[in-house]
Amino acid sequence: MVYQIDSGLDGTERRLTYVSRGVEKLHEVPLSEVTQDPSFVYDSVDPDYLPLVIEGEAEALRTMTTFRVDVQVTLPSGRQAWRSFASCPRRLADGRLVWDGVEFDITARKQAEFEYREMQQQLLQTQKMESIGHLAGGIAHDFNNMLSVILGHAEISIGKLELAGNDDAEILSNLHNIRSAAERSADLTRQLLAFARKQTVQPRVLDPNRTVGGMLAMLKRLIGENIDLAWEPSPDAGHILMDPSQVDQILVNLCLNARDAIQGTGRVVISTSVRSLDGEYCARHSGCVPGDWSVLEVSDDGVGMDRATMNRLFEPFFTTKASGRGTGLGLATVYGIVRQNDGFILVESSPGKGSKFSIFLPRQGGTCFHPLRGDSEAAIAGGHETILLVEDEPLIRELMVAMLEPLGYQVMAASCPSEAIDLVRECEGGIDLLVSDMVLPEMNGRDLADRIRSMKPGTKVMFISGYVGDAGLPGGVLAAGTHFLPKPFTLEDLTLRIREAIKG
Within its chain, how far is the Cα of 26 from the centroid? Predict the structure, then answer.
């Protein structure tokens, strides 16, 4: 649009002397209406941008040079758009001031700039989260080893005191506190690894309805009696490929987040559904991927979130809760788990209107695995079998020997693969089970297992590790049927997994 404004001798009496027909498209009004109202175009400028126009005109008038400004306008339809004004003042021979100008529609350009900034922010956010993920993975191996030592020796000491009939309450209390602190530290490490997408998982084909339904009783206890927990399963929720423990982690963290967002009484709704997303929908919703999805949603009627909070929602250690109420790892954990399983999350929220988290996971076919749930604790079991233990950390190796030998197992311990291979060569009998760390010097646990089984066919295998990022597992995913025990572990965890592995 081209225009000319006659401002008279004093510059205040504005009169449009020419406006091109482009105004009808730019401002959604007939040309005749604009010429009758010289302030029409300026009146459409949003108040926040008017000072830019006034300052630009004043400077142009002082220097008699062109000024240019980009502003947001509100059109008669209520639609907001962007315009670029460029105008230059000049004096006629009779002293009158005239402004010659042009106006361009730059809405598309501004939208592209906004989307580019959003992409930059998302990239920076991704890079920041990946950096923290690498840090988490880097410390997890050694940290989990030390936690295993603390937890294991605390358990052994408790067991010896109870077996000896020592009822020293103070010593037992101290040991139980040590064990409790180690378990809590282990939980934090697991959350960090889940966020970093570096935890070891054993995916199974699951029915979301059955999996979630088995958790409802526990979730109700978790969120408290003042909050109503509603379960709205879809008759057809599809199947997902996921480690059952990861579904538990997602639900626990989302329900805790919902609980903390509710002041007093409220309602949390868990639902399932299936959705097919096309390219058009995904173009309008950042992060979406076209395809068929099983959707798990957790919504609440809590305080909701503003845009600034939502922009940092999945950052590890970011929290809006009071000191002592949270670590800031819950939603970061959910984010890591969903990304590890090739899914994505959509979040809807606004202050005072609650929040809804929609977890999109790829739909799967196949027969479902049904995780067993129960409150009973199995007793620690022993055996007479021969176990080859390969662990490069001396404290862990000594601890596991101290755990297993009193239960009747014959334990051959090695500090590295070459030592383990030498022990196998010297062993005249069979080896019932190889228990190996995944991350070892010389070769990883999987390669060592192949070597041992070539020498002693029929040897069962169980892997242990606190972090498998360097063990050659794509995405930390174990093959179906693999026996695995994450560090740190309890005596009960160790013995139960060993019995499972030996029975095969």
Answer: 43
